[in-house]
Amino acid sequence: DWKMQDVLDEEIRTIQSMVGPDEHVICALSGGVDSTVAATLVHKAIGDRLHCVFVDNGLLRYNERERVMSTFESDLHLPVTCIDASEQFLSKLKGIKDPEMKRKIIGREFIAVFDDFGHNLEQKIGKRPGYLVQGTLYPDVIESCPPPGSGRTHSHTIKSHHNVGGLPKDMKLKLIEPLKLLFKDEVRKLGSILNVPESFLKRHPFPGPGLAVRVLGDVTAGNALEVLRQVDEIFVQAIKDAGLYDKIWQAFAVFLPVQTVGVQGDQRTHSNAVALRAITSEDGMTADWYYFEREFLVDVVNKICNNVRGVNRVVQDITQKPPATVEWE
Ligand code: XMP
Asked: For binding ATP, which residues are annotated in this chain's numbering (predicted)?
């Protein structure tokens, strides 16, 4: 793809002229397409002056830390430091219900973790990294703050994506956002030119604030995160087993802080409802819900209610974007 090859060459030149020869750069890897492609690109431009970090913010999916760290090691060949900051994030999120507030807190904590990481690197390499790589895409930019001349009429913020509007104003690290003008399918093309393994390029998008935008309200309430992880794992695994993963843009579960009455065995229960969302999309800006076969859904719902304690009801989100967004918060 000659167009993407040009974009790649141009980006590498831009980064090389922006980052001085003895300057260092931090990149937060999430295990997703965007940050992986961004890191690989920046690594090509500046080599080992790039320092990658994977942050466990306590908002990851089932076994995600172990899975992602092992794929980084086996497939990506980029050195990655893993930081467990789950206590730090979750304690700051305790009792917080407002979606925008949750995003702001998460953005701030990420920066605090990067600052610490930069400080530790300074002790080790004698130089403080001055830049942060973000895998921000064009749709993130226009939804958080439509650029002038983009032809977009809305001037309000739909959501402050943590990697755009949610970053603290006083952040000292300068941003490198090599994917800022690209859509997801273009990032996937760029990734394949950069030999990023298919396993990364085909992963469904996952939001930076993680499960915090999928547990409605207080993320730390009860065992919401644990329940959500189990439900989500069953749903996504069933999608993979049915060979549907690549047909779907994104599929996930949402924890609803709602208790409903049910009957399990011969017991009356009063337990949680969860929602399933699966969508098709071209770029995440608009979306349609995915129409599953009845048998598939019956099987998934049985698996969820039989295996996840505390869930007695499953609903499916059948709202397009717009009017709904992809995530529930
Ligand atoms: P929404 O919910 O805005 O989602 O319709 C559109 C796409 O963006 C992802 N998303 C995020 N990604 N940081 C991210 O990196 C965020 O704060 C964020 N919020 C939403 C969402 O998963 C979907 O793919």
From this structure: 30-36
For ligand 1, the distance from its centroid to the CA atom of residue 176, given in whole angstroms, is: 19
**194 in the same domain as 219:** no
Q: Which of 326, 328, 329 to mutate to test the pocket of ligand 1 (most atoms within 8 A of CB)?
A: 326
The pLDDT tens digits of the residues spanning 78-114 come to 889 999 999 999 999 999 999 999 999 999 999 999 9
316: helix, coil or strand?
Answer: strand
Instruction: Calculate the CA 21 to chain-centre distance.
Output: 31
Q: Does residue 325 lie in a domain region?
A: no
Q: What is the Cα–Cα distance from 83 to 24, expressed in whole angstroms?
A: 19
Q: Is 217 annotated as a binding residue?
A: no
Question: Which CATH number do you get for residue 40?
Answer: 3.40.50.620
Which ligand 1 atom sits nearest the alpha carbon of residue 135?
Answer: 15
ipTM above 0.95, yes or no: yes
What is the enclosing helix (H) or strand (E) of 293? none
Residue 319 Cβ < 6 Å to ligand 1? no
Atom of ligand 1 at shortest range from CA of 213: 19
Both 279 and 142 in one domain: the answer is no
User: 172 and 62, same structural domain?
Assistant: yes
